Amino acid sequence: MVETVTGTARSAGVDYADLLASDSHPVTDVQKTDSPMPAGPTVVDASVYYSREFHELEVERLWKRVWQMACHEDDIPEVGDSFVYDIASLSFIVVRTGEEEFRAYPNACLHRGRALLHESEQGLREFRCPFHGWAWHLDGSLKEVPCHWDFPTVNQETHSLPSLPVGRWGGFVFINPDQNAEPLDSFLGDLSSQFPHVPFERRYKAAHIIKRLNCNWKVAQEAFMEAYHCVATHPTLLPTLGDANTKYDVFGNYSRAMSPSMTISPHVNDHYAANPYTDRRTFSKQRHELSGATYERLEEGRVRVTMPDGRSGIYDDHAHHVEGDKFHADIHLCDWVGGRLPDGVEDEATPDVVGEFAEKRATAAAAVREQMREILGDDVDGVSDAELIDPIYLSLFPNLHPWGDFNPIFYRFRPDGDNPEQCLHEVMFMLPAPKGQPRPAPAKLTFLDLDDDYLDAPEIGSLAKVFNQDTLNLPFVQKGLKQLQEVIFGNYGETKIRHFHELLQRWVA
Ligand code: FES
Ligand SMILES: [Fe+2]
After folding, report:
1. In terms of CB atoms within 10 Å, which of 169, 381, 417, 480 comes out highest?
2. From ligand 2's centre to the CA of 489, what distance in Å?
3. Which tens digits make up the pLDDT trace of 201-229?
4. Which CATH architecture has domain 16-57+188-268+355-508?
5. How buried is residue 414: exposed, middle or buried, by Cβ count under 10 Å (0-12/13-18/19+)?
């Protein structure tokens, strides 16, 4: 096991605390809190990402014992509405039993085990097993056993549905399969303090997709738990994101990343930083700020790549050479520039922004503040620039990822049934309902299978292009892991992953 020495090394470039100090609006104590993860183990055994044994350990020791979000209250608005929540090989039913009351049960008939529901259903009055017709009231009490005379030992005491611990946070229903679980509130700690302006109770589900991916659920979620991958996976972000200057903190069962927006990546070398690129267009023309090569869309699947020394070739959107000069073209930029374009999102001229960081940040934040004024009223005048424009990304152990107040993104990652090498990436957009108005009805779910593209879900807009870049790597990670003994994480830049594994090890130990 590798132990880091001090854990205090940080990237060159801007310091997030300095950006907060130069914010044009008041910043909160929560933003200023410094809670870095201490130096500690930075490696984990590669087999945790593919072995069946580890998958089964997770089922027994994690999923059967941990608090987990099952659904949103709005998914089951009326008494009798039921939601089937599946995790790994397990299945549970969540049912609304009163205006403010929810219950959860294992989704298994107590006769011979048939799932009571194979999909979510609305307006149930009872749970009746389709096999031999045993029935339970919504409160779990036994209602009817056909030929009850033949089951003399079966009664209300012995065969009511076991009611599982249920908790609520931010409009979501959480369940815990463990009857002896600690209360949800103590598990969450002060998570709510991270959302001082737009608590999740005020938000509604404006989009909801699930994408099936060819990798372990931890591989997928960890691809979203650090800004470290931006340098190679999202090169278009480098001119406006201090990726390596992200601030990471850990608090009990959750962790936080705050990335400085409208600054420049410390990876961008001085020559390019001093020569802002005026030809940039959101999707069709980009410069790779590390190599200096320009990527220009000719048509779908065709990109002209021109190196700073003048060599030029045409590549497809998977970075395969088509004609002209041969060199290494970047697959993530070829995909970005030459791949499908999102419907309804403008391909705009987006020249590099020059000037002082604080000024740029205040200008960008002012625009967001005005957009948010319609929804939040004048409360927005008490919101910092950082909260409005920086990617602020929380992760609640084991698999829930709500972003900060002014970012609608909300992820969940789950193993896909019993296959440790497949998972489900869930994306919800949680938007604030306009002040004083009830939450609109939740969006319908779009399911994307292995071969579907995130762009098949137009409701997530240009984020689909970003997810395509992220998930390009994942099957190759899953494959490569089997040739490794262990993987290693950056002490600071991969804080959130280290924190996750520290907790995971504790749960499965
Ligand atoms: S398995 Fe459910 S009633 Fe027989
Ligand atoms: Fe990413």
Report:
1. 169
2. 16
3. 999 999 999 999 999 999 999 999 999 99
4. Alpha-Beta Complex (3.90)
5. buried
